[in-house]
Design brief:
eleven-stranded antiparallel β-sheet, Rossmann fold, RNA-binding, Isoleucyl-tRNA Synthetase, Domain 1, globular, 3 domains, OB fold (Dihydrolipoamide Acetyltransferase, E2P), five-stranded parallel β-sheet, about 40% helix, about 20% strand
């Protein structure tokens, strides 16, 4: 069994993490707990990312020093992750001396190899503060949408990535003065020189490590479009010094040294264990096994990394290139588990506006940590963004965690204590039941081996559901007197299934599962580097139907949530406490939006290129249609989009089409349109259709049809690459920037036909119509 080195994306130190931020650390924890229990030699490393512009800016805002700021927030992060029972082997900091040592050593390796180049570029300089201004030290007006509070790196209104010198009316974020453009020199890593090495490594690693299509396509897009030299220095004070003459007043760019934090935190752990007199290890045995005596004779190391989708290129291109450019044989990415975004209600998390649940809020909510862990993994956003809503939280908590799993555990164990004096009845193995259970256990185990955490979790709940149905069908409350052997067999076998479920669910809900096992007088094994292993059941005990004898007094662990409580939480975390602050600015912006933010249609000669780079159309099959009870015009459609995960969208077609007109139809959807909640239901995409009038002049709608194409088929313009990577998510304005229209029955953009599986998309009735 190969050793497993696990890392989770390093959270920025300068804020309190919200539920969406915590997903990566929690995901790494679930996988690490599984690996340890399964018998793998496992190391789980994470920590806070402390250097960079964001920290310097935050320190200025809070009128403190960066080190003091980091000390404070490191404590806050630590407290939150401990409350969530995230069992890191080490949760460290990138501001440690080991990070400086290893970062500078890697830089020197690249410099000696001729992979570091100096370039002079233009940058804004504040004469008043007497310093060059990094991206986030500049505010100004966005040159693309006119938003007056754009930042130097990005406009929060239109989402455009910016260069500070592009801003109109730029202002120094610190003093408000107008900066001037000056020349400054920086060091760049020569990524193009490593393109061949990167490509060869990626081709092998992506197959052996089963990378997701998303990671492969994004990485190939970077390589296909031509790698660019990338700056690795910044004009800042808070950071790792650059060990090169002429660069004494500069530091390394945070995205050069942040991933090196995985290495340095590992070394930090090893050094701390030595100081504490505990059994230590050679950090190189994990990251440089070919140079470590300790690693000789041990299995190879597989590196599993848990990150958000926005960090993929840094982990598949920039960081690997740093390693490939070094003469040392570093451990590199084996498998990546990336997630989409978790959003909040009908918008995004915002600490400043009091919108959303942050780690400190979860602690204060009174809801157990394992209930939060359950919800996050039951809905882990693996294929598409997911919207946290309190209504959904209540329904999943009450329906699945309590109504399914909790119901099985509580009524089975209570039956033992109430009717069998706490002694589990002796009975033969129910081979029919265990055949189903073991097949699903094997399926869940295989999913976990490749960090498919959501699929594995759902499979476990499938086992619970099967057992609940068997309990109900057997009616042990009757069988106990009418056919005692039947009741005894049911309860005996269900106790062992519950034991198995607790072992498998322990990585997800460690506190709850240990509590349930304590009713049997048992526990589940727990381990961690530098700590004494707590004995107990392991993965090898799955399917074993002996060893349990009694059930002690039990209690209900999770309490259901009622409508009143749910609404109170939604009000509390909905930003109401900041409504006065939001009203004044929000109303102004909304009024301005109505005037300025009407969808803009691009010039005809730009539309095809914009579509090819940004808009993703996909064929999907409608597998279910039902009216939205809260919206008289809306249908809720469930789609098979070829991803393996059902997709829900809404369309305003109830006035025009019957449910039977849509069910089973292969339609075309805008697949990367940002999710939108309408009448309480989130819609993940938009169905394309054209309008026309019938012979009586009645308004009608025709849905675009692609009956010949399988779900998941990409719809492209003639001549375009069907495998081209598209933007992860687009706004409604971006979608409508392109005019899709049927002309003489052929659907096209700027004169180019839309094709699905090589065949033209045509209309029957809406022969000359705008498509939307």
């Amino acid at each position: 069994m190969n050793r497993r080195l696990i890392t989770a994306a390093l959270p920025y130190v300068n804020n309190i993490p919200h539920l969406g931020n915590i997903i990566q650390s929690l995901s790494g924890d679930v996988f690490a707990r599984f690996c340890r229990n399964r018998g793998y030699d496992t190391l789980y490393i994470c920590g806070v990312d402390e250097y960079g512009t964001a920290t310097e800016t935050k320190a200025l805002e809070e009128k403190t020093e960066p080190r003091a700021l980091c000390d404070h927030y490191y404590g806050e992060h630590t407290k939150i992750y401990e409350w969530f029972h995230i069992n890191f082997d080490k949760f460290g900091r990138t501001s440690n001396e080991q990070c400086t040592e290893i970062t500078q050593a890697l830089f020197n390796d690249l410099d000696k190899a001729g992979l570091i180049h100096e370039h002079v570029n233009k940058q804004l300089f504040c004469p008043h503060c007497n310093m060059f201004l990094a991206d986030r030290y500049v505010d100004g007006t966005c040159p693309k949408c006119g938003y007056e509070k754009a930042r130097g790196d990005q406009c929060d209104k239109c989402g455009s990535l910016l260069d500070p010198i592009e801003l109109k009316e730029p202002r120094c974020h610190t003093c408000g003065s107008t900066p001037e453009v000056r020349e400054t020199k920086h060091l760049y890593i020569d990524l193009p020189a490593m393109s061949d090495k990167l490509n060869a490594w990626m081709d092998k690693a992506s197959v052996e490590g089963r990378w997701s299509d998303n990671a492969i396509n994004m990485t190939k897009a970077w390589i296909r479009d031509g790698l660019q030299e990338r700056a690795i220095t910044r004009d800042l004070k808070w950071g790792i010094p650059v060990p090169k003459a002429g660069y004494e007043n500069k530091v390394f760019y945070v995205w050069f040294n942040a991933p090196i934090g995985y290495l340095s935190i590992t070394k930090q752990l090893a050094d701390e264990l030595v100081k504490a007199g505990k059994q230590s290890f050679d950090w190189k045995s994990w990251w440089l096994p070919s140079e470590s005596e300790e690693a000789k004779g041990k299995e190879k190391v597989d590196l599993f990394q848990f990150i958000g989708k926005d960090n993929i290129p840094f982990h598949t291109v920039v960081f690997p290139c740093t390693m490939l450019g070094s003469p040392h044989d570093w451990t590199k990415l084996h498998h990546m588990s990336s997630t989409e975004f978790l959003n909040y209600e009908d918008g995004k998390f915002s600490k400043s506006l009091g919108i959303g649940v942050f780690g400190s809020d979860a602690i204060e909510s009174g809801i157990p940590a394992d209930a939060w862990r359950f919800y996050i993994f039951y809905n882990r956003p693996e294929k598409q963004d997911y919207q946290f809503t309190w209504k959904d939280f209540m329904e999943k908590l009450n329906g699945e965690l309590i109504g399914n799993l909790g119901n099985l555990v509580n009524r089975t164990l209570l039956f033992v204590t109430k009717y069998y004096d706490g002694k589990i009845p002796d009975a033969p193995v129910d081979e029919e039941l265990w055949k189903q259970v073991r097949e699903l256990e094997a399926k869940a185990t295989e999913s976990l081996e490749w960090a498919d955490l959501k699929d594995a979790f759902h499979t476990m709940f499938e086992i619970s559901d099967i057992c609940n149905k068997k309990f109900q069908a057997t009616e042990p409350w009757k069988a106990r007197t009418e056919n005692p052997a039947v009741a005894e067999s049911l309860i005996h076998n269900l106790c062992y299934v519950i034991k198995d479920l607790m072992i498998m669910m322990n990585p997800y809900m460690p506190q709850y599962t240990q509590k349930i096992m304590s009713y049997f007088g048992k526990s589940i094994q727990e381990s961690k580097v530098g700590m004494e292993t707590k004995p107990g059941y392991t993965w090898a005990d799955l399917g074993v139907t002996e060893g349990l004898s009694t059930v002690g007094p039990t209690e209900v662990y999770f309490k259901p949530m009622d409508q009143k409580t749910m609404l109170a939480f939604r009000e509390k975390f909905g930003g109401k406490q900041n409504k006065d602050a939001a009203k004044g600015e929000g109303k102004k912006e909304k009024k301005a939006d109505k005037k300025k933010m009407e969808p803009l249609v691009l010039p005809l000669d730009q539309q095809a290129d914009f579509f090819n780079k940004n808009i993703e159309l996909t064929v999907a099959k409608i597998v279910d249609v039902k009216p939205n009870p809260e919206g008289e015009k809306l249908y809720i459609e469930t789609l098979d989009d070829g991803s393996g995960t059902p997709r829900t969208i809404q369309s305003g077609l109830r006035m025009y089409l019957k449910e039977s007109d849509l069910l089973g139809k292969h339609v075309i959807i805008a697949a990367n349109l940002a999710p939108r909640t309408m009448r309480g239901v989130e819609s993940r995409g938009m169905l394309l259709a054209g309008d026309y009038k019938d012979a009586d002049g009645k308004d009608c709608v025709e849905v675009l049809d692609a009956s010949w194409a399988a779900p998941g088929t990409k719809v492209v313009l003639e001549g375009a690459d069907v495998n081209a990577a598209k933007k992860e998510q687009i706004t409604g304005d971006e979608f409508f920037a392109v005019q899709i229209a049927a002309k003489d029955g052929v659907v096209q953009i700027a004169g180019k036909k839309l094709l699905a599986d090589g065949k033209e998309i045509k209309t029957v009735n809406a022969v000359n119509s705008e498509i939307g």
